Amino acid sequence: MSDRIPRDSDNDYSEVMAKTRRDFAAEKTSAKLDHIGHYSVDPATTAGNIENFIGVAQVPLGLIGPLRVNGEHASGDFYVPMATSEGTLIASYNRGARLLRDSGGVKVSVVDDAMQRAPVFVFNDAREAREFGVWVEQNFDQIAAQAETTTSSGKLRNIEQYAAARMRYLRFNFTTGDAAGQNMVGKATFVACEWIMKTCPGIQRYMLSGAMDTDKKHSQINTLHSRGKRVIAEVLIPGELLEKTMGVTAEVLFKARQINQVGSFMAGTSSTGAHAANGIAAVFIATGQDAANVAESSASIIYADIDEAGNYYLSVTLPSLIIATYGGGTGLATQQECLNILDCNGTGKVHKLAEIIGATVLAGEVSLMSAVLAGDWVTSHDALGRNR
User: Fold this and answer.
1) Closest CA to 37 of 55, 20, 21
2) For the chain, which domains are there?
């Protein structure tokens, strides 16, 4: 038998080829593949999502809620599907959702929206690179027109510029509608850069990405300038309700937040939150988002305060939440069903989904911090996380 994975150029996304590849993998590795071949998804629908399809890796799917969201796009009570293999996660987020609902709900706002591609242009020296920066500013309208020939929904909002050595780094900022947009802005920026190369003299060469777009990795520039949706979720929790539901007082929780911020600073972490990645990853898998974007999307800024009445104000800022409600994995059957649970399937729904995810993250933050302080963190994992 050949070492090459079987493929069929005419009918590769079929049950026949999926089984052929499973049989190939079983023979080559001696692994028993009793489960990955059981699924309801039509292999033909996975074209564009995966290559060498052999089956489906199923992840347990749970539900939290009702989570009350007081957003500008999402308003009301929502049941949020979350896919995870970590016991206690759903229980913890569900507890947080109950507290937030009893507090009147989470106020959520999408305050910025941009997706980037960041090419770099190389010149003979720094002065030529500086002059190129002026040229870019003077020709922005023409650059935007070239970029937007490739897309009906992407719009070039602005171009940031950064100088180093004899290079000029440009950060193209696009709005991308209901798509996450990385591929969209890559194609649009490529066309714009090719036009720049033909039109502007003196450029030695360029690269479509000079790494300042920071795809699939966290960066400080995203925290400051946003990537994807910048979402802020906030709630005011009555002090008595917090103590009754979570077993901790507002004062204790607030002081713990201050202590944790010092620890985060010393550790050099990119976020001040407890575990935004847990909730974001679980919702991403359930709704067909690009799971690798959790690296950027889980960046979080937590702020807390206590008002004069002893109520606990808590907010989370997600500066780089990269999501979509159409395209990519959102078109898969099970992921569409999860989006339908949230009424976030299709166009015109991406900001609604962003607000729901922001509220979900806040539920997880208040629940985990309270559990740590009340002594429930370890015992809850012992009780619910015992699938060993």
Assistant:
1) 55
2) 9-58 (no CATH), 61-112+228-384 (3.90.770.10), 119-207 (3.30.70.420)
